[in-house]
């Protein structure tokens, strides 16, 4: 029969009494025995009521997300790992291997025997450590029940892993166990803020608090930038506020100053438009400001740089020993998306190629990885078709930025052959005059793609083609000198004793020449030798030749980019809004005010609720949720998730050039340009020059009210 309310209350009281007796008994036992678990709770006692992070347990156990738990026994707080047993039985006090997400048994087992246990004395293995399971808990709502052992298939909490696990791990009694893949979250961290303590003396507490926050929240990223700033990267405005509150009140417990949110942008180029801003076909109207505009364009390009009508930029190094011609073209959207999705695979390719180039002994390349690389190559060949992309996939020299980004560097000149696909086939060492300096070209490309000319943001969807790389005789001798330097060490040493200090490249050239002269036994007059040496020294006064190539390549890429129509790309959220019919108009008003775009609107069956799907720029999302709730009296609630990068259609550098544009936009064309607004905001934040007029015609300003 069902229990009455009185019987339910009576049983609850009995259960509470038994639980209190058990707690008192276990507390007394802990005080008398002074267990290690007590010490660990004291060490981490002040870390706040933490959200312990996912571990995966075993036998093998998968950790999903962390739980904040308050230990009633000593009223202190520590991390509890949330885990699931996949095989075997987990016992309290058991010694076990902790395998990180990057642990690879294939690399580690040659150091260990497959039969070894966590109690043995083991060598140091990357991404693997040993620990003792101090406490096992049954998670009963907000209560914790102590357990001695847990069989397979159960979910449990594990105490004492905060020093061994960052976000997730696999626990196993065998080192041969492959780790579970780390958890993937739909929300990508995109909004970043810089954090610093109000009192500089509190910096150690802030650093410790950020480490704890990083461990507690599976979706946050904590990093230190090159500028020394401590940065939090979060999924959105609400998540950011939650992380800052946790940092202040639970983890760091100090007052902090937070910068304005840093919104990332990307820079790209597009094909020249066919119609102008008033939808007139370009080239058919009477141009008014052409002279003025072309003068401005000429002023942008310094002397010594040639730009032809097709956008090919030709530059020489400062010492005039090498000349580069670079062209920039936009990549198809499918290729950009493909490169973004496969960035990890491209990074693996780069590591394999580096080890092949350096003749390192590498273990056998995984067949699955090779198949994925072949599949990527086939997809690129399918998407890069047409006359201008002929053989483009085989001519890929590098990806960028950071050698794994969504930009491509191609070579299209004679006498050189090197490919990113060398891990797929037999590699032939290319011996040419370009071999010693090709890394300088790649480094210049990496620098150019890392910070574009508009507002120093990374590039996206751009292909740079090196169509010409000429080296003068001295440049070639610099190359051959470095090739022969191994054979000429004795001659170099002798020369260095007799001569004044000079650049390393010049010494190698002279020693190489002397070596050739000695082989041919052709005497040369000292005047000729000193004259030649003076020429090389003069050529080398601009610094190492490789450094000049890096700087020249970077500048050539930037000018090639400026020769094409430039655009900004904004990060976009997908926005899902549930609203009733009466507030639909207000929802659309808020979206259009914030540059949002509605994709779909459908009614939920059986209700009067509409589901609206839209995209919204991340830069416009701050305060969006509050505003939409305010305007709709709480009847509409948005859900924002990072989706993709989207090009902003307006040109940030646009000025009116035709009569129609003058009539429509006015002489100054000072109507709001969204792309220019974003660009200037980023330039201001980075301390770059911003072209804006604060006051115009100051002498004409006057008060319009009458004097009494």
Automatic annotation (TrEMBL):
Checking InterPro entries in the record gives: EFG_II, EFG_III/V, EFG_V-like, EFL1, Ribosomal_Su5_D2-typ_SF, Ribsml_uS5_D2-typ_fold_subgr, Transl_B-barrel_sf
- Judging by the UniProt lineage, the source's domain of life is Eukaryota
Which one GO biological process term can you cite for this protein?
A: cytosolic ribosome assembly
Q: Which UniProt keywords apply?
A: Acetylation, Coiled coil, Elongation factor, GTP-binding, Hydrolase, Nucleotide-binding, Protein biosynthesis, Ribosome biogenesis
Q: What catalytic activity is recorded?
A: GTP + H2O = GDP + phosphate + H(+)
Spell out the protein name for this chain. Elongation factor-like GTPase 1
Source species of the chain: Opisthocomus hoazin (Hoatzin)
The Gene Ontology CC terms held by the record are: cytosol; ribonucleoprotein complex
Lineage summary: Eukaryota, Metazoa, Chordata, Craniata, Vertebrata
Q: Where is this region: Disordered?
A: 1-56, 480-504
Q: Which residues form a coiled coil?
A: 335-383
- CDD domains documented for this protein: aeEF2_snRNP_like_IV, eEF2_snRNP_like_C, EF2_II, EF2_snRNP_III
Question: What the protein does?
Answer: GTPase involved in the biogenesis of the 60S ribosomal subunit and translational activation of ribosomes. Together with SBDS, triggers the GTP-dependent release of EIF6 from 60S pre-ribosomes in the cytoplasm, thereby activating ribosomes for translation competence by allowing 80S ribosome assembly and facilitating EIF6 recycling to the nucleus, where it is required for 60S rRNA processing and nuclear export.
Where's the Elongation factor EFG domain?
Answer: 567-656
Q: Could you tell me one molecular function GO term of this UniProt entry?
A: GTPase activity
Entry's transmembrane regions: none
């Amino acid at each position: 029969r069902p229990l009455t309310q009185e019987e339910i209350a009576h049983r609850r009281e009995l259960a509470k009494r038994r639980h209190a007796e058990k707690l008192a008994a276990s507390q007394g036992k802990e005080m008398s025995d002074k267990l290690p678990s007590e010490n660990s709770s004291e060490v981490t006692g002040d870390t706040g009521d933490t959200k312990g992070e996912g571990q995966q347990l075993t036998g093998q156990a998968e950790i999903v997300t962390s739980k904040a738990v308050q230990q009633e026994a000593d009223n202190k707080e520590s991390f509890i790992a949330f885990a699931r047993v996949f095989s075997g039985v987990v016992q309290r006090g058991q010694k076990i291997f902790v395998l990180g997400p990057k642990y690879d048994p294939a690399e580690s087992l040659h150091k260990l025997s497959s039969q070894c246990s966590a109690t043995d004395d083991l060598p140091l293995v990357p991404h693997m450590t040993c620990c003792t399971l101090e406490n096992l808990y049954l998670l009963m709502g907000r209560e914790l029940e102590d357990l001695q052992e847990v069989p397979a298939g159960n979910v449990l909490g594990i105490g004492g892993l905060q020093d061994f696990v960052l976000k997730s791990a696999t626990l196993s009694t065998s080192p041969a166990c492959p780790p579970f893949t780390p958890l993937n979250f739909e929300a990508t961290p995109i909004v970043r803020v810089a954090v610093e303590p109000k009192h500089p003396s509190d910096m150690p507490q802030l650093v410790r608090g950020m480490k704890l926050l990083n461990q507690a929240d599976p979706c946050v990223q904590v990093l230190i930038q090159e500028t020394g700033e401590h940065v939090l990267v979060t999924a959105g405005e609400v998540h950011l506020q939650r992380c800052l509150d946790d940092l202040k009140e639970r983890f760091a417990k100090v007052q902090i100053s937070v910068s304005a949110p840093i919104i990332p942008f990307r820079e790209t180029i597009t094909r020249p438009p066919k119609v102008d801003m008033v939808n007139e076909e370009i080239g058919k109207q009477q141009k008014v400001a052409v002279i003025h505009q072309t003068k401005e364009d000429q002023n942008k390009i310094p002397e010594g740089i040639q730009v032809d009508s097709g956008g090919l930029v030709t530059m020489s190094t400062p010492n005039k020993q090498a000349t580069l011609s670079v062209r920039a073209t936009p990549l198809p959207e499918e290729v950009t998306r493909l490169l973004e999705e496969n960035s990890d695979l491209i990074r693996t390719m780069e590591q394999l190629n580096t080890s092949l180039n350096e003749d390192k002994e590498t273990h056998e390349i995984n067949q699955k990885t090779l198949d994925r690389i072949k599949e990527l190559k086939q997809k690129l060949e399918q998407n890069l078709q047409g006359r201008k992309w002929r053989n483009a996939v085989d001519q890929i020299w590098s990806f960028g930025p950071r050698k794994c980004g969504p930009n491509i560097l191609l070579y299209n000149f004679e006498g050189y052959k090197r490919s990113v696909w060398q891990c797929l086939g037999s590699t032939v060492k290319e011996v040419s005059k370009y071999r010693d300096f090709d890394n300088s070209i790649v480094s210049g490309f990496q620098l150019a793609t890392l910070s574009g000319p508009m507002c120093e943001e990374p590039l996206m969807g751009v292909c740079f083609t090196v169509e010409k790389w000429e080296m003068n005789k001295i440049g070639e001798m610099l190359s051959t000198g470095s090739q022969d330097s191994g054979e000429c060490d004795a001659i170099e040493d002798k020369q260095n004793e007799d001569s004044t200090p000079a650049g390393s490249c010049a010494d190698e050239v002279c020693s190489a020449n002397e070596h050739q002269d000695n082989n041919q036994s052709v005497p040369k007059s000292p005047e000729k030798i000193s004259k030649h040496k003076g020429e090389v020294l003069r050529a080398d006064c601009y610094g190492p030749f490789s450094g000049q190539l890096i700087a020249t390549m970077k500048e050539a890429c930037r000018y090639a980019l400026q020769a094409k129509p430039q655009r900004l790309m904004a990060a976009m959220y997908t926005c899902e809004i549930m609203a009733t019919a009466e507030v639909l108009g207000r929802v659309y008003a808020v979206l259009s005010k914030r540059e949002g775009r509605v994709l779909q609107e459908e009614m939920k069956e059986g209700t009067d609720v509409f589901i609206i799907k839209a995209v919204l720029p991340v830069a416009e999302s701050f305060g969006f949720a509050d505003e939409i709730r305010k305007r709709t009296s709480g009847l509409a609630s948005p859900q924002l998730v990072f989706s993709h990068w989207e090009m902003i259609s307006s040109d940030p550098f646009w000025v009116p050039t035709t009569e129609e544009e003058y009539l429509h936009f006015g002489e100054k064309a000072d109507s709001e340009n969204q792309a220019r607004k974003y660009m200037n905001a980023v330039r201001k934040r980075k301390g770059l020059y911003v072209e804006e007029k604060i006051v115009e015609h100051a002498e004409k300003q006057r008060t319009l009210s009458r004097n009494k």
